[in-house]
Amino acid sequence: MEKILFLAHTEPDGTLAAAALEVLGAAVSLCGELSAELNVGLVGENADKAAGGIGGCGAARFLSVSGPEFSTSRYASDLFALDALCKACGAAIVLAPATSRFSRALPGLAMRLNGRADTHLTAVAVREGAPVITRWFYRQRMWAEISRETRPWIMTLESGCFEPWSGEATQVSVEQVSVELPESARRTTVLEIQSPPADERTIRPEASILFVAGAGWTKKQPDGQEHVKEAGNLILGFVDKAQASLGSSKSLVDLSGEGQEVLNFMTHLHQVGQTGATPRHKKGLSTCCHGEEPHVVGWRFITERRAVNLDAACGWAQGKADVLYVADAFKVMAKVNELLG
Amino acid sequence: MSTGFHIVVCGSVVPDPLQTLEPVQGPAGPQLKNEMMLPAVLDPWACHALYEAAHLASKTPESKVWLVSLGPKAKLQQVMMTMAQKAPFELVALDGPAGGFTEAFSVAKALAKAIEDITGLDRRRLLIFGGWQSASRGTGAVLQMVGERLGIVDQFQGVDELKVQNDGSLKILERIEGGSYLISTCIGPPAVLGWATGMLPEPPNNPQVGMQNMRLLMPALQKAKPVSPGAEGVAFLKVELPRQRRETRIVKDAPVDDIAGEIIEWLRG
């Protein structure tokens, strides 16, 4: 019987993130379809404590690597921990969430184990008794279904694509896997997480709406003047009132390097598209952005799309948005903000 | 021992982002339609890595930058005409397929071997840079695998900033979830850094740098070692373009109040 290993790291509060529970759901489902044995491997400061929360998942074994050295996101310690868990389990297939922590470590692990890694999966199915994965290529321009014979096969799954596991918390027996970190694995020290203050936070992966601002906000308006400060107030006003997540086109974030008056709260972290993020919000509203393909590829997983642009022939009009409002975004967003209260 | 860095940037060619891409079945598996005819660029995140490498090398005496690039020789030559003017580097070219449907594992093995074979490379001063994922395969896996083959266990992904501190240690900012950064320090090289966009703008073309680079670039291309990072052991069952094309409703000449009201209704729906 093939073994499938579900890997997860704990959050600072000792629990498992929503993304991890989604992968557990996928792992349970895959095990059912392949008649495989599910094993769970957890990494974190008190990883064994998280096991109880998913104790009802039907895993044959729960393994953990625990300790202060494994509490933070660091390649070397994660690599050694995950390597130990994989070897203790002997799994043929490994499923893990595509978090920043695991995305850093798992490909190196695949090389270490002479296995293969497929990342950012959006679907995992079974066909003719074998796993088949789906992932996107060329920055979300095309997708492929892939199967492999090489084992171990390490898979990282994107969030928002799988039903999360839910079930009873149950006391389980957790096998502690001991990992002695060599000196070579201690050369990196994690200092801190730098986050914007809560009242300045504009990137919200959990938001139901993505609001994208394009370079048009900083251009000369019909009165021949730039109104960058007003633009900033309107954008931040909406993001705050709607609790939206803020995104940007590349051209807008690049302006800061070109000596123009800019929206200071925009950084490359906000960039959506070819060299930016591919967020997964249910709704997206684009404003003052042309909707060119290198930007729109980042909208692949935004289900409902609307745009506000003065150009009726912009990219959004060419089947990239559900609705294009040919209108002045300054006026529209001022009214929207007024209606939001 | 020198305090300079030996920075090896790994980056390949990808289709120009403005091109329309269509998958077709080739003799060795899926590929892009008219792939060899498509204009190519150096992978955008690898470009950022190269600019950061050049910037770091310019500030740190006795540093050197190599660009290790696997791709069809003709494409590499096309791309290098532009890249050679951006930053000083020595090219190590590998002649082989560079499409998104090649195997990360095989590509990593080829790149690691090429790095091992660089004459004069000091592995104690080695920093491996690259994009944190490519605009083709997009796995974000190759750099980690290269690092693993070279025995480097200090690795960072989604890097936006690297500062060399007074004691020679490296302070690194990595992007993590929710728009935050993870700040770490590493005692020093060797290390692997997969760059996001970094903090530097694209440098202007510098013809003098271009001429300096070209002296070694053309010979490097001519002696590019052939490699074949195929997709052994993997079966592509299907490769398709997304089918969805929206029927866009274009709202023109509508009062602002009506538009705003409709947006509010949609947001709350």
What features would you describe in this structure?
The complex is a heterodimer of chains A (341) and B (269). Chain A is 25% helix and 26% strand. By secondary structure, chain A is α/β, with parallel strands linked by helices. In chain A, strand 14 (283-287), helix 7 and strand 15 form a beta-alpha-beta unit. The longest helix of chain A has 17 residues, at 18-34. By secondary structure, chain B is α/β, with parallel strands linked by helices. Helices cover 29% and strands 29% of the residues of chain B. Chain B is built from 6 helices and 15 strands. In chain B, the strands form 3 sheets. In chain B, strands 11-10-9-12-8-1-6-7-13 form a 9-stranded mixed beta sheet, with helices on both faces. A two-stranded antiparallel ribbon of chain B has the order 2-5. In chain B, helix 2 (73-83) runs antiparallel to helix 5 and helix 3 (104-116) packs across helix 4 (142-149).
Describe the structure using short key phrases.
heterodimer; A: 341 residues; alpha/beta; Rossmann fold; 2 domains; seven-stranded parallel β-sheet; five-stranded parallel β-sheet; 25% helix; B: alpha/beta; globular
Summarize the structure.
Helices cover 25% and strands 26% of the residues of chain A.
Question: CATH H-level name of the largest domain in chain A... which superfamily?
Answer: HUPs
- Percent of residues in helices of chain B comes to 25-40%
Q: Mean pLDDT of chain A, rounded to whole units?
A: 94
Task: Please trace the helix and strand order of chain B, writing H or E for each element.
Answer: EEEEEHEHEHEHEEEEHEEEH
String of helices and strands of chain A? EHEHEHEHEEEEEEEEHEHEHEEH
Using only C-alpha atoms, the radius of gyration of chain A works out to 23 Å
Which secondary-structure class do the elements of chain A indicate? Answer: alpha/beta
Tell me the helix content of chain A: 10-25%
The gross shape of chain B turns out to be globular
Per DSSP, the total helix count of chain A is: 8
Q: How many domains is the backbone of chain A divided into?
A: 2
> What characterizes the major β-sheet of chain A?
7 strands, parallel
Arithmetic mean of pLDDT of chain B: 95
Low-confidence stretches of chain B: none
